[in-house]
């Protein structure tokens, strides 16, 4: 009887570890569902919106300007943030706030991206903590799942004027 109980326990533990590994690989390399919080991406993503984040883009270095990404926070590695990619390595970006009279510019260093929230007046982003290492990107958001009346692909940045081409 003890042998039977131990056998069932070890089988259960084996299946748990096996399915845990499969789930980890799926979330790490394919993507997952994310609940966004905070006002920094309004009006594109509202507080408590549910989105799908895919991870293949970051592994194949396919992140482009305008993409919305989930990133490990440079200020708090235990939390993730959701921001839009404004500049890639080598790009010239506007580093000042929209309300500043004199505009300052900088270049994004190699291996980094420049991130900003769509709600520029209420976003802690690269204007505050500087360029973010590419390795902190966890995934790219490409589909809004909830609320259902807003289901679909994400719209373009309301701050398109902040993308510099020179």
From TrEMBL:
<dbReference type="InterPro" id="IPR000223">
    <property type="entry name" value="Pept_S26A_signal_pept_1"/>
</dbReference>
<keyword id="KW-0645">Protease</keyword>
<dbReference type="InterPro" id="IPR036286">
    <property type="entry name" value="LexA/Signal_pep-like_sf"/>
</dbReference>
<feature type="domain" description="Peptidase S26">
    <location>
        <begin position="103"/>
        <end position="146"/>
    </location>
</feature>
<keyword id="KW-0496">Mitochondrion</keyword>
<dbReference type="InterPro" id="IPR052064">
    <property type="entry name" value="Mito_IMP1_subunit"/>
</dbReference>
<dbReference type="GO" id="GO:0006465">
    <property type="term" value="P:signal peptide processing"/>
</dbReference>
<feature type="active site">
    <location>
        <position position="83"/>
    </location>
</feature>
<dbReference type="GO" id="GO:0006627">
    <property type="term" value="P:protein processing involved in protein targeting to mitochondrion"/>
</dbReference>
<comment type="subunit">
    <text>Heterodimer of 2 subunits, IMMPL1 and IMMPL2.</text>
</comment>
<keyword id="KW-0999">Mitochondrion inner membrane</keyword>
<dbReference type="Pfam" id="PF10502">
    <property type="entry name" value="Peptidase_S26"/>
</dbReference>
<protein>
    <recommendedName>
        <fullName>Mitochondrial inner membrane protease subunit</fullName>
        <ecNumber>3.4.21.-</ecNumber>
    </recommendedName>
</protein>
<comment type="similarity">
    <text>Belongs to the peptidase S26 family. IMP1 subfamily.</text>
</comment>
<dbReference type="GO" id="GO:0042720">
    <property type="term" value="C:mitochondrial inner membrane peptidase complex"/>
</dbReference>
<keyword id="KW-0472">Membrane</keyword>
<dbReference type="InterPro" id="IPR019533">
    <property type="entry name" value="Peptidase_S26"/>
</dbReference>
<dbReference type="GO" id="GO:0004252">
    <property type="term" value="F:serine-type endopeptidase activity"/>
</dbReference>
<feature type="domain" description="Peptidase S26">
    <location>
        <begin position="16"/>
        <end position="97"/>
    </location>
</feature>
<keyword id="KW-0378">Hydrolase</keyword>
<feature type="active site">
    <location>
        <position position="40"/>
    </location>
</feature>
């Amino acid at each position: 009887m003890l042998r039977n109980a131990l056998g069932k326990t070890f089988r259960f533990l084996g299946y748990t570890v096996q399915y845990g590994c499969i789930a980890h690989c799926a979330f790490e390399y394919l993507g997952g569902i994310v609940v966004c919080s905070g006002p920094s991406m309004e009006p594109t993503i509202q507080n408590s919106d549910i989105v799908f984040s895919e991870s293949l883009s970051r592994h194949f270095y396919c992140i482009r300007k305008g993409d919305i990404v989930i990133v490990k926070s440079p200020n708090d590695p235990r939390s993730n943030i959701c921001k839009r990619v404004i500049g890639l390595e080598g790009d010239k970006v506007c580093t000042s706030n929209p309300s500043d009279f004199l505009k300052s510019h900088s270049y994004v260093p190699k291996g980094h991206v420049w991130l900003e929230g769509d709600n520029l007046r209420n976003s802690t982003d690269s204007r505050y903590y500087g360029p973010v290492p590419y390795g902190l990107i966890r995934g790219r958001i490409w589909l809004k799942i909830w609320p259902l009346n807003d289901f679909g692909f994400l719209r373009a940045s309301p701050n398109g004027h902040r993308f510099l081409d020179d």
